[in-house]
Specification:
With about 450 residues, the chain is α/β, with parallel strands linked by helices. It has 12 helices and 18 strands. The structure holds ligand BES and manganese (II) ion (2 copies).
């Protein structure tokens, strides 16, 4: 690859300006009020792919939001890289905690602030711009296909069908994804694993209506009291999950691999400072890095019921509800864990209440082996552009479609993300470093080059 830095330097202002335009579109897939905007984001991504030089671009309809497709086939005998990403974003709330409106991008201290800046619009644009760079400088070394979906943040529910129906069109040698983060810019890392996910909503019903908490309190089960106890019992004094069978299929990582992981540059004090916490919390016997990478976890994502308006209302509510997620590690099956949760949660409820457990979307865990040529191509690319070796790290986040890519297309994914954990994805004031954005554009062409050479 030649003139990579030169091309980026000459075009970076336009690259940033184009990303800013995309970030102005509130493509919130979870909220139907943003349907037109989400469609507009799909159109915008298709257009930039065309401008970059992609061919056969198309908005492929699904039962939900369309998949943006584009390709550049230079020679069918050469390898093909399939790039995946998502143009949808998380809801912006709590909106009052943003320092600037989430869909009015602001550049401050070398970072672009907007919902979707890092997850994943900024990262998909790195690939679009890298494609432009390789085409315009006549250096595209292999074929490339893009699928950018619009439902990742709501569980990619329709993408599976799209993949099954398009196995021929999606034929490739490797999948390349930038939708994860690095340890830091000083310690570049490549994500080697994603957690699976099991997500449920629970509803506890006591009496058939809200009651006076004096007249009935103490004599009729309060669903919020009961739900709190039930949730509290899901973890024990060592912060291990108490659902029978929960750990049965968990792959225990070898002592050697754990010793390797312990060398990961990580400052517990900085971590605590960043989050303004006095101490961390988690499964006994495991480090923070291990807890977020190789161990399964359980969290309440939301809990509600009763009176939450201003002032005090004395009420014994009829219902209490919660949204609960479990992050899964290799060999745990999302469906099985959901079933175990359901059975257990129902079994621990007292007769005084009724329990309904509603499963939401889920996904399977994924691991990228570090001894495959594609991983080495990525490591070599990082070494070239960062001037230092990369560190393999498993992520705590989930991209459910990655396991499905392997199952349906037989393809491994390289998770070459350029975000940082401090980018505040899914939180107020999400941002993406311009340095990270440009470094991504610089690194991707080297991955293309290295991968093409390895496959020769
Ligand atoms: N890009 C994230 C996943 C991610 C973030 C992986 C950071 C590794 C590091 C993705 O957009 C996401 O948010 N996924 C959801 C799952 C989905 C089913 C809603 C998640 O992990 O909560
Ligand atoms: Mn994402
Ligand atoms: Mn996300």
């Amino acid at each position: 690859m030649k003139d990579v830095k030169k091309y980026i330097e000459a075009n970076k202002d336009r690259f940033i300006a184009e990303l800013v335009e995309l970030l102005k579109i509130p493509s919130i897939s979870a909220d139907s009020a943003y349907k037109n905007d989400t469609m507009a984001a799909a159109e915008a991504v298709k257009k930039t792919l065309e401008l970059a030089g992609a061919e056969n671009t198309e908005l492929c309809p699904t039962a939900g939001y369309p998949v943006v497709y584009g390709e550049k086939i230079i020679d069918p005998t050469l390898p093909t890289i399939l790039v995946y990403g998502h143009y949808d974003v998380q809801p912006a709330d709590p909106i009052e905690l943003w320092d600037s409106p989430p869909f009015m991008p602001v550049i401050k201290d070398g970072k672009i602030y907007a919902r979707g800046a890092a997850d994943d619009k900024g990262q998909i644009y790195m690939h679009v711009k890298a494609l432009e760079l390789m085409i315009k400088t006549n250096q595209l070394p292999c074929n490339v296909k893009f699928i950018i979906e619009g439902e990742e943040e709501v569980g990619s529910v329709n993408l599976g069908t799209f993949i099954k129906e398009n196995t021929e069109r999606l034929k490739a040698d490797i999948i390349l994804i930038s939708d994860t983060s690095m340890l830091s810019m000083e310690h570049p890392s490549i994500t080697t694993g994603l957690k699976g996910l099991s997500y449920l909503e629970v509803e506890i019903t006591g009496p058939n209506r809200d009651l006076h908490s004096g007249v009935y309190g103490g004599a009729v089960a309060n669903p919020i009291n009961i739900l709190s106890k039930m949730i509290a019992s899901l973890t024990d004094e060592n912060n291990r999950i108490t659902i029978p069978g929960f750990y049965d299929n968990v792959v225990e990582v070898s002592a050697e691999e754990r010793a390797e992981m312990a060398k990961t540059p990580f400052e517990l004090n900085d971590y605590k400072d960043h989050l303004n916490i006095n101490d961390v919390h988690g499964e006994k016997g495991y480090s923070t890095i291990e807890r977020t990478s190789i161990r399964p976890t359980l969290d309440v994502n939301g809990i509600w019921g009763g009176y939450i308006g201003e002032g005090a209302k004395t009420v014994l509510p009829s219902k209490a509800q919660a949204k609960i997620s479990m992050r899964l590690v290799p060999n745990q099956s999302s469906e099985e864990i959901t079933q175990l949760f359901k059975n257990h949660f129902k079994s621990i409820a007292p007769d005084s209440v009724k329990v309904v457990v509603k499963p939401h979307h889920g996904g399977e865990p994924y691991v990228t082996p570090i001894d495959i040529p594609a991983y080495q191509a990525a490591a070599k690319a990082i070494a070239t552009t960062f001037g230092k070796p990369s560190i393999p790290v498993r992520a705590g986040g989930s991209i459910p479609i990655v396991a499905l890519f392997e199952k349906e297309l037989g393809l491994k994914s390289i998770l070459l993300g350029f975000g940082l954990n401090s980018d505040a994805i899914h939180s107020p004031n999400e941002h993406y470093g311009i340095f990270n954005f440009l470094k991504g554009i610089e690194t991707i062409p080297y991955f293309f080059e290295n991968f093409s050479q390895l496959k020769k």
